[in-house]
Automatic annotation (TrEMBL), chain A:
SUPFAM superfamilies: 4Fe-4S ferredoxins, Fe-only hydrogenase
Taxonomic classification: Bacteria, Bacillati, Bacillota, Clostridia, Eubacteriales
Lineage top rank: taxon: Bacteria
Name of the protein described by the UniProt record: 4Fe-4S dicluster domain-containing protein
Chain segments annotated as transmembrane: none
Keyword hit for Iron-sulfur: yes
Signal peptide: none
GO molecular function, one term: metal ion binding
UniProtKB/TrEMBL annotation, chain B:
Annotated source species: Ruminiclostridium herbifermentans
Protein name: ATP-binding protein
Keywords: ATP-binding, Nucleotide-binding
Coiled-coil regions listed in the entry: none
Gene3D superfamilies attached to this UniProt entry: Histidine kinase-like ATPase, C-terminal domain
Amino acid sequence: MKEYFHSVNLDKDKCRGCTNCIKRCPTEAIRVRKSKAQIINERCIDCGECIRVCPYHAKTAINDGLDIINNFKYKVVLPAPSLYGQFDKKYSRDNILFALKSIGFDYVFEVAKAAEIVSEATRQLLKNNEIKKPMISSACPAVVRLIQVRFPGLIDNIVKLESPMEVAAKIAKSEIHEKYNIPMDDIGAFFISPCAAKATSVKSPYEKQKSNVDGVIFIKDIYLKILSALNNVDNTKKLAEAGADGIDWANSGGESGALGTEKVLSVDGIHNVIKIFDEIEADRLSDIEFVEALSCTGGCLGGPLTLTNVFIAKTTQKKHMSEASKKSINGIYKRSYKDLVWTSNVEYKPVMKLDQNVSKAIEKLEMLEKLYEELPGLDCGACGSPNCRALAEDIVRGTANETDCIFKLRERIRGLAEEMVELGGKMPPVMDRDK
Amino acid sequence: MSTIKLKYEIPANDFIIAGEASSNVKNKLTQIGVSADIIKKAAISMYEAEINAVIHGNGGYAYVEIFSDKVVIKIVDSGPGIPDVEQAMQEGYSTAPDKIREMGFGAGMGLPNMKKYADKLEIYTEVGKGTTIIITVNF
Ligand code: SF4
Ligand code: SF4
């Protein structure tokens, strides 16, 4: 298997090894070693919690950079619905899209429009009794990865539909190809993203071999460029087509709100998502057919690579929604949801497993329990592991030592010191005058 | 052959802590690499037993032993006991007071659910003395 790719990364120069991040990570994927944080790649779900929490801004996301668009002759930009909420209220969606296009793109296709298509497909799936309920949205890639590493029992509940981003790239490319007769290979599609998770889903897509998106640019990296382009907007250009239902996908509750049923639950914030998934896995959630789960508090408007405060962005987003018609102005494309269904499935990644062999795993767990008993239980993080239990686990996995615990170390030193004092009191027989 | 023995206290009438033991066991089974559907069986049946001990049994203890081929969960309470086990096994039969039902517990699915998810269910109960429930789930 090829090495697991993920986007969130550490800037070693900026990291001070402060241990703030290790405690927030929902999959316990970070350790501090040699005064630098390290991410255990297979465990990271790219939720970006560590980006948010690092006081020194040492956590970053691998990005493609704007230059990547020059690899293609014809360039399409796909703005995430959350882009609209980033700018001052006085700019209309047309303004923003025009400014974005003027940076160097030939074509704009709103991901919000594709979101409406995915909503329609989801409504069709909801009616299908053969599909396992509650369905869990696959819109947030961090949540899908979370299920892969922590909730294998929920893999069958994931909505196996392509994301609005993928749908947008596909439709935009074929539209351009048909309209202007441009070869498919010459068209590059670039997603303007609020988060690292989306970048990962492009670089190593779980549901298929290759993404239709050719590059991901983070909102924080393109923000200034759009802002300056907004100074000379052309108010006559009409580019905004998506309806309020699609724009609302940027909010927590937006996707589920478009489904037309009350039997939905929407949860945001990765730690809240974990609690709800525990409930679903234990069959304790009744009368819910669809769960919208977003890693970021507030939804994608709160994405780790956005710039505007999520609560301010929400008011702005509301304004854009009130200016739009409910549904996309062209009406959504009449197509069967079958085109959007994943061709392959996601797999369980048993990263928490202690050993391939059950008996060996039991032995290790037994050792882990013993070690844990002996640790002080303060969960201080000074050892570089997120809590005492995780240190015990790391020792069992062979990646840490008991004396990494400063309390254990002190105990050992005290023991040694006592021994030294005792030894110090003993005189070599030749010098001992009492005898 | 090594096994893991775990012991948890189940406090009486504490719904905030209720369920912690079963979710703890769930994490351990995950670390051992037991498959998801089996973990689910163990976690749900243990949760039900745990909640029962909270609601009816004045709390008690959970003793869990994990072997390489099965997990055995023993929940012991010193509550009033179950006068008619057969009746209690029926779906929807419940003696939980209204105030507990209002909280969404005590819908009479406890024992039926345990029976549904456990591979083997043993119930030892004596009125006035308490109840011991032993759930076995095979890997
Ligand atoms: S992105 Fe999320 S999962 Fe990955 S290391 Fe950071 S906090 Fe942990
Ligand atoms: S909630 Fe949205 S912004 Fe946040 S990680 Fe998920 S997809 Fe990205």
